[in-house]
């Protein structure tokens, strides 16, 4: 689950409860009063007051002159060390920039968090087709090229969890049959390429490849999103595969999550 | 203070102590064992074990197959909502890209955290001079163009704190006299431009301007860094001032930290 600002029962340790406060903040509402945080987290105002004080003391929250809280710069600095966030982005960015200049299309980098795709970076191409994604935001895993790659290389339990749920339909071409999705995932594992042809919007095709940290272990996926009516899928597949391999090589030796790191 | 991995006495609430664990992680060492976290934070191993469990439960930390911990993707997602981090970066980026293409020089965006400069974004220009900065990392406030702007518009107490400390010398041109620095800061407030001429390295000049959220309230600073032997300081000053104003306009109405947000 990702922060959505939705209230949910706050349980667990003091630390987990304090971190729950952070979930109240959203892109639409990055500055909140204590009452707003209380309403969004379902925690009593007195608890929110105390925990917000602790979070502010360390710098996870900041308070402005009007008394509203927001996510603090110190948390942002620490979070920049997330191997699957900023570090991955920095390694991938030069390759993504090349790919974007060559194709003039949107180029996207994503990782899997549970059963969701999280976009780590997106470069807008010169002749970019409209996409629905935003850096840091989640996206259903069964529809996009990135998602299909990440799902194909996810643990079996994650695949089964996705296949057991209703598969939301975005267009007439979205895969909504578990049996069909299962076949496509097997094919993605074999070919190491996923093509989402008008499965998210009727305007866009995305072509995605896994970024392997070690053989068979995909830490992330890279995609090119192009206009459905003009996309050269074969050429884009070759380009995205080469770029994903280049990023994979830059992860090694050691890898972002390896014990030799 | 920013996370440096240095041990410091852990005090305060459970929440603050848990967050202290996050300070153990560095760019050089983004994957740590519990013993390493214990050593770096000065907290007992049993405490680290319990708090790391809580942080992992929420997603502030992640554990890899070898048992090492790293900063979690969920924290990275939440931290992307820091108004002075990612949100500022997204508003500033289009203007910074224009500036980088026009000048072909390095373009930097920074904010002040206590008495330090934190770089929020840096674009490398085509004919870029070497710089020492890295996104998310701190930098002394009295030497760079960005730092001089941020210090000039900081509260008086922050200025006095910096002026009372030894001012580190980076080159023969670094300002190390408090009286001289005080004069320069007054001039930066008047002109709304800071020029750091070979004060960080003998190769580079930086020209910086404040980004005003409201009149007189500088939330950030923007700089161009150019080669000292060829830099056209007057032209760069005009460009950086215009760009900083454009970013400032995009912050309003409301502003990143305003109560109307």
Automatic annotation (TrEMBL), chains A, B:
Residues 74-253 form the IclR-ED domain. Residues 12-73 form the HTH iclR-type domain. The keyword Ribosomal protein does not apply. The keyword Transmembrane does not apply. One of its GO terms (biological process) is glycerol metabolic process. InterPro entries: GAF-like_dom_sf, HTH_MetabolicPath_Reg, Tscrpt_reg_IclR_C, Tscrpt_reg_IclR_N, WH-like_DNA-bd_sf, WH_DNA-bd_sf. SUPFAM superfamilies: GAF domain-like, Winged helix' DNA-binding domain. It comes from Rhodococcus aetherivorans. May be an activator protein for the gylABX operon. One of its GO terms (molecular function) is DNA binding. This is Glycerol operon regulatory protein. Keywords: DNA-binding, Glycerol metabolism, Transcription, Transcription regulation.
